[in-house]
Write a structure and sequence with these properties.
By secondary structure, the chain is mainly alpha-helical. The protein has two domains: 8-55, no CATH class; 68-284 and 296-313 and 320-381, no CATH class. It has helices at residues 45-93, 115-128, 134-156, 160-177, 183-202, 209-227, 233-249, 258-278, 288-292, 294-309, 322-328, 333-354, 360-376, 378-381; strands at residues 8-12, 15-18, 21-24, 28-32, 96-97, 110-111. The strands form three sheets. It has a two-stranded antiparallel sheet with strand order 1-4. It has a two-stranded antiparallel ribbon with strand order 2-3.
Length: 385
């Protein structure tokens, strides 16, 4: 009898006896300790114990993923069910978008407090999934504050400067509370969250565009986080809430998200995407968040640059956003939304590929395709005249 060797792995579909019970090993990869030589090799009981641990871990993962799916479905249904009472509340409190100026793309008054339904459904989903983490708690609190200020803005139209200062203050508190340390890291995280907050506010100008884009970003962000072994369930819950709201927001929209919705969702996406920066290795993975949110970021920076070149206030509203230009080119509401959502999904998929080092070749090819797509849209994206 020879001494036991190091643990190895063996694929087997036979039956084994453990604790006086017979159970199958159906194609599982199980460790064993080789004792003896040739036909005298036999499994050590330690292999059976490790097999039990292997199967129990896999079952726990399956139950966890199943719970995320069921809670996401519940969040979807809850957001859909909350929209009608939110519509009634918006009419009562005066949170209504009246088409008084030329830049509006709708002709009738529409309530704009849909962020209440999105945030409420997302909050309940996070609470159902268990005790929120420290970073998620800070994101929920900060999102709640932005929700209240955004609702006031939907009713009374607050100054853009005051809203920006409040966003910076809330983002700073949330970033510090989530555990980010270091002066440059904190400043970069705050800038990222504030930029995403305003970027999603900028694209909320077409029926179904903001909600659809946020849902795509939430799903792709969740996949990117899963590939990096980071908790991703809140991203899927937020995507489900946006999808449930979009049933009422698609053309012709019966409710808008309003500043209380677009700003809050942008803030929540920014806070959840900070984990990608924290665990990113130097290389293409650092570009993953930029591709995930490429469309709203592009629309924001081109709008600000266009206004600065014209000598106008960067926060002054106009009718030169990308969805406005596509509409002016002759596309309908549905066609504009389909084109921009496809662009967002394509660029976001590149971000998912870049989020891990296992798909660098595919990400490189996808980057070339995304560059070609942007070149084709250059007359809409880079037109400042």
């Amino acid at each position: 009898m020879h001494a036991a060797r190091f643990p190895r792995y063996k694929r087997s579909s036979a039956f084994c006896r453990s604790d006086n019970r017979i159970r199958p090993r159906t194609g599982a990869i199980l460790p064993y300790i080789s004792v003896g030589r040739g036909e005298n090799k036999r499994l050590h009981p330690e292999g059976d114990a490790t097999a039990c641990c292997f199967f129990s871990q896999r079952k726990r993962k399956e139950r966890k993923y199943g719970m995320v799916v069921w809670i996401s479905c519940a969040v979807f249904g809850l957001a859909w069910a909350l929209v009608p009472p939110v519509v009634a509340l918006a009419w009562r409190i005066g949170a209504v978008d009246v088409p008084r100026d030329w830049r509006r793309m709708h002709r009738e008054s529409v309530p704009r407090a849909g962020g209440l339904a999105i945030y409420a459904a997302f909050l309940i989903g996070c609470l159902l999934s268990g005790q929120p983490s420290r970073s998620l708690t800070c994101a929920l609190l900060g999102g709640g504050l932005l929700l209240v200020v955004g609702l006031v803005d939907d009713m009374r139209c607050l100054s853009a400067g005051y809203k920006l200062l409040f966003q910076v203050a809330v983002a700073t508190a949330a970033v510090l509370g989530s555990g980010v340390t270091g002066g440059w890291r904190v400043a970069g995280a705050v800038l990222w969250v504030v930029v995403l907050t305003n970027a999603h506010n900028f694209i909320d100008g077409l029926d179904g565009l903001f909600a659809g884009c946020a849902a795509i970003e939430g799903i792709l962000l969740g996949v990117a986080l899963l590939l990096r072994a980071i908790p991703a369930s809140p991203a899927f819950f937020l995507a489900a809430a946006c999808l449930g709201f979009r049933l009422y927001n698609r053309y012709p929209a019966r409710i808008f998200a309003g500043d209380c919705g677009s700003g809050t969702v942008g803030f929540l996406l920014g806070m959840q995407s900070l984990s990608l920066f924290r665990s990113a290795w130097l290389g293409g993975a650092m570009l993953a968040p930029l591709f995930l949110f490429a469309y709203p970021l592009t629309d924001l920076f081109t709008a600000v640059l266009r206004r600065l070149l014209r000598g106008k206030n960067p926060f002054a509203a106009d009718r030169a956003h990308l969805h406005h230009r596509l509409s002016a080119a002759g596309l309908s509401h549905v066609q504009c939304g389909g084109v921009l959502l496809s662009v967002s999904a394509a660029l976001g998929s590149v971000g998912v590929l870049l989020s891990t080092g296992r798909f660098l070749l595919g990400a490189s090819c996808a980057c070339l395709g995304a560059a070609f797509l942007l070149v084709q849209l250059r007359k809409y994206v880079l037109c400042f005249a």
